[in-house]
Specification:
By secondary structure, this protein is of the alpha/beta class. Helices cover 42% and strands 16% of the residues. The strands form 2 sheets. A 7-stranded mixed sheet has the order 2-8-7-6-5-3-4, sandwiched between helices. Strands 1-12-13-11-10-9 form a 6-stranded mixed sheet. Pathway: Cofactor biosynthesis; biotin biosynthesis.
């Protein structure tokens, strides 16, 4: 039987056609467009991805270390460059040990697959990243999802557990689609009271929150396990988990994503360390982000309502579009309707501006949005161009309403 006639291929074709008809078709971003257009779709919050000093450092590290690690970290792939990065991370974030992974997705999956057994309980915020939710579904533990940032609901779920052998609570520092932050002090208190471990994925908080960009831990509470990534504010790639020696040693021994994967290139590890130094010392980058956020909010205040949260099922009559006021560089513009989102995105494309048109199932139904990501690399003129491109379409009837 050929590929075109197999039952599996026919099923794939049907599902692909359905996704196109629903207006949910995904396609890879055009990097050439990203270079020539104003880009508000990425996660380069500190503007480090194209920093000339890091580009030069990358060339130097490649000459020193070559292009690859050639083996797993437990074979011969772990070098002095990796060790130095781990030490820098521990110094910056205040943890005794760190372990490196090739991506945040791999780090999150390794964490939940490795630390949880069949008699354990896992509690996750409903808006956690797909890597965490999928890992929870596939792990042997029993997963329970609490309403977004709803600590009362989390307490209820914990109270209903029938003597699990152990519990793990997982949330995010900054949520990638809403740009809001988790109640870290409440999470710490609940974990302490229940005897659960608490893990925090701070992929979108690292670099942008705190005096030195230390992320969500700057808000006071320190999770037992901290997951950070290097492909967003730090502008490179990869991830790390920081925790006690016991937890890190356990991951080194049993995490398959670590043991059976080639280590990140040592040149990359050295470059991440350089990026951390810039993130810690160049405070103007975070100050610039704050100025951009204020300019954006003020520039659109006549055309939009601003709020700190959006509940799609609580009151579908609330005014749209709505710009969420967030403490992060992620500024979601909630449109609601898919067709209206396409109109907004089309207006930006005409102005050679790239935004993040985010649709279900990435976000809940009726919350299709333009995910505006600010960067320290943006100039005031870039923010002005974005505002001017949005004004006409937001003033029209095409960018309003939530479909049932």
């Amino acid at each position: 039987m050929t590929d075109t006639t197999s039952a599996l291929t026919r099923r794939y074709q049907d599902e692909l056609a359905a996704r196109q008809q629903q207006g949910l078709w995904r396609q890879s971003g055009d990097n050439a467009v990203a270079e020539s257009w104003r880009n508000f779709a990425g996660n380069d919050y500190l503007g480090l991805a194209q920093d000339p000093r890091l580009v030069k450092k990358a060339q130097q590290h490649l000459e020193r270390w070559g292009v690859g690690a050639t083996a797993s970290p437990v074979v011969s792939g772990f070098t002095a460059a990796h060790q130095s990065l781990c030490e820098q991370l521990c110094d910056w974030l205040g943890y005794p040990q760190a372990i490196l992974f090739n991506s945040g997705f791999a780090a999150n999956q390794a964490l939940l697959f490795t630390l949880l057994g069949k008699d354990d309980a896992l509690f996750q915020d409903k808006l956690n990243h797909a890597s965490l939710i999928e890992a929870g579904v596939l792990s042997p533990a029993t997963q329970r999802r609490f309403r977004h940032n709803d600590m009362a609901h989390l307490r209820q779920l914990l109270a209903k557990q029938i003597q699990p052998s152990a519990s793990l609570i997982v949330s995010e520092g900054v949520f990638s689609m809403d740009g809001d932050v988790s109640p870290t002090e409440s999470l710490a208190a609940i974990a302490n009271q229940s005897g659960a471990l608490w893990a925090l994925d701070d992929a979108h908080g690292l670099g942008v929150l705190g005096q030195e960009g230390e992320g969500s831990i700057s808000r006071g509470a320190r999770p037992d396990i901290l997951i950070v990534t290097f492909g967003k504010a730090l502008g490179v790639a990869g991830a790390a988990v920081l925790a006690s020696p016991t937890i890190i040693d356990y991951l080194r021994q049993f995490a398959r994503h670590y043991v059976y994967s080639t280590a990140m290139p040592p040149a990359q590890a050295a470059l991440i360390e350089d990026a951390i130094r810039l993130a810690r010392t160049e405070h103007w980058r975070r100050e610039t982000l704050s100025a951009h956020a204020e300019q954006l909010t003020q520039g659109l205040h006549e055309w939009l309502e601003t709020s700190t949260a959006f509940e799609p099922h609580a009151d579908n009559r609330q005014h749209l579009p709505r710009l969420l006021a967030t403490p992060s560089p992620i500024k979601p513009l909630i449109i609601g309707d898919l067709a209206a989102l396409q109109q907004v995105n089309h207006a930006l494309m005409k102005a050679h501006i790239r935004g993040g048109a985010i649709r279900p199932p990435t976000v809940p139904a009726n919350t299709a949005r333009l995910r505006i990501s600010l960067s320290a690399q943006h100039h005031k003129t870039d923010i002005t161009a974005l505002i001017e491109a949005l004004k006409p379409v937001l003033a029209s009837d095409k960018a309003c309403g939530v479909t049932a």
